[in-house]
Specification:
Largest sheet of chain B: 4 strands, mixed
Number of domains of chain B: 2
Radius of gyration of chain B: 19 Å
Low-confidence stretches of chain B: none
Largest sheet of chain A: 5 strands, mixed, barrel
Number of helices of chain A: 6
Largest interface: A-B, 45 and 52 residues
Oligomer: heterodimer
Order of helices and strands of chain B: EHHHEEHEEHEHEHHEEE
Number of helices of chain B: 8
Distance between the termini of chain B: 13 Å
Strand order of the largest sheet of chain B: 4-2-5-10
Distance between the termini of chain A: 30 Å
Low-confidence stretches of chain A: none
Number of domains of chain A: 1
Order of helices and strands of chain A: EHEHEHEHEHEEH
CATH architecture of the largest domain in chain B: 2-Layer Sandwich
CATH class of the largest domain in chain B: Alpha Beta
Helix content of chain B: 25-40%
Number of strands of chain B: 10
Mean pLDDT of chain A: 96
Strand order of the largest sheet of chain A: 2-3-4-5-7
Strand content of chain A: 25-35%
CATH topology of the largest domain in chain B: 60s Ribosomal Protein L30, Chain: A
Structural class of chain A: alpha/beta
Strand content of chain B: 15-25%
Shape of chain A: globular
Mean pLDDT of chain B: 97
Number of strands of chain A: 7
Shape of chain B: globular
CATH architecture of chain A: Alpha-Beta Barrel
Chain lengths: ~190, ~280
Amino acid sequence: MSQVHRLKAPLTRDDLEPLQAGDRVLISGPVYTARDAAHKRLVEALGRGDKLPVDIKGQILYYVGPSPAPPGRVIGAAGPTTSYRMDPYTPTLLALGLRAMIGKGRRGPEVKAAMVEYGAVYLGAYGGAGALLSEVIKEVEIIAYEDLGPEALRRLMVEDFPAVVVNDMHGRDLYEEGQKMYARGRQS
Amino acid sequence: MHEIETEKITRTVKELFLKASFELGRDVLDAFKRGLAEEDSPVGREIFERLLENADLAEKNRVPLCQDCGMAVLFVEIGTGVRIVGGDLTGALEEGVRQAYAEGYLRKSVCHPLTRKNTGDNTPAVIHYEFSPGDRLKIAAVPKGGGAENMSRVFMLKPADGWAGVKEKVLLAVNEAGPNPCPPIIVGVALGGDFELAAREAKKTLLRPIGSTNPEAEADRLEKELLAAVNDLGIGPLGLGGRFTALDVHLKIMPCHIASMPLAVNIQCHSSRHAEAVL
C-alpha cells in the first residue's frame, strides 16, 4: 500500500530516502517553475560561470508554463508540461543539488541515473488538470526571465500540492511498473 | 448568396475558442464517468475523478481546463453559396483567435521555431479550408496542446504492410507516447490520401464525438479493433497503468496512390477541446 509523504523545500537526501515509486506526496511551501526556455538559460548561465537567479540546492522545480492570471486570481491554469524536453539540462541541475522535479511523462536514462546518483526524485502531477492545480497555488512571484512570459522563472507558494512519486532515488519507475501490471497479450 | 460579415466571423471564432478552453464536451465528460465506473486501476479511477473536478472548476471559475491553451487550429467549410463581406476571411478568423486569447486570459503558445520568440497573440492560426455545397459557413475550433501534438506521427507504409502493418504502427505510436501526451488519449488515424492529406484528416477525426459510430462500416469495425489493441497496452490514465489508455480511436480511410500507403496518427490528450458553429 502506498504512503502519503509531506514535502517542503529545502529537502535533503535523507528526506527523500523513504519515498518509493507509487507513493503519494503533498507538497507545501516554495516550488520554482521552469520549462524549456528557462532551463536553457539556467544551464547557459552555468556555462558562463554566472550565478543562478535562484540557489536550487535542496529545491523543487515544477515544469509548468501557467496561463495568465485572470482578475482576482494569483495564477491561471497551472498543470505540468511534458518533462522529457528538460532532460538535456537536468543532470547538470541535479549535480547542483536539485532534489525534486514535478512534471508528467517519462524521463530519459541519463536523468534516471543522475537521480539515483545525487539522490533526487521525479514527481508526476495531474496532467491536464490545470484548473484544479491552480487552486493549491497561493502566491506567485517572478524571480527571473520575465521576458519569457509563460516560461519565466517563478516562485510559487503551494499548499498540499498533490503528486505521485514516478521515479524514486532507488531506481524504480512507476510508469514501467504500472504499465506492466495492466498490459495484456503481446507487447510491442 | 448568403452574405456573412467578417465581424460576425471574428466574434464566432472568439466565442468558440473561449468555450472550448473552459468547457469540455458532453462526450468527453461521459467518457470520464465511464472510466470512473469501469477502470480496474484504483489510481486510474481517482484520476478520472480529478479530471471531472477539473472540468467543473474550469467552467465555474473561467480558468482554462489546461494551461496549454494550444495552437489555434480551425477547420472551415465554406458553402459555395456564401459570400464574405467586410474584409478577408483569414484575417477575420485570426482576429477572433487574437481576441479569444487576450480576453480569455488564455496562454499564448506560438513562437518562432529557432529564436523561440513568442508572437504574443497566439497567431498565426492553423487554418484548413474546404468547400462544400450549400450556403453555410461551418467553423470548428480546436485548441491543440503541444504535448499531445508532439506524439503524433506520419508513416509512409508499403502496400505490402497491409492492415497488420497499420495496426503495428498505431500501437508503436501510442506505446512510445506512453504517459507523455496525458492519456487517456483520443487517437485520430487516417489511412490513405497522401502525406499531408493523411495528417490533416487524422486531426480532423478528433472532431467526431467520443463513442460515436463511424459512418463507414469497414472503418467502424477496424477502429474498434484498434481501440481494443491500444487499451491492451496497459498504459492507463496518465500512464500510471490501467485499462483506459484511449477513450476512443477514430479512423478515416481514403484512396491513395498505387505505390503508397500513408498513415497518420494524431494523438489528442484527454482534455479534448473543440467547439463548432454554423453561420
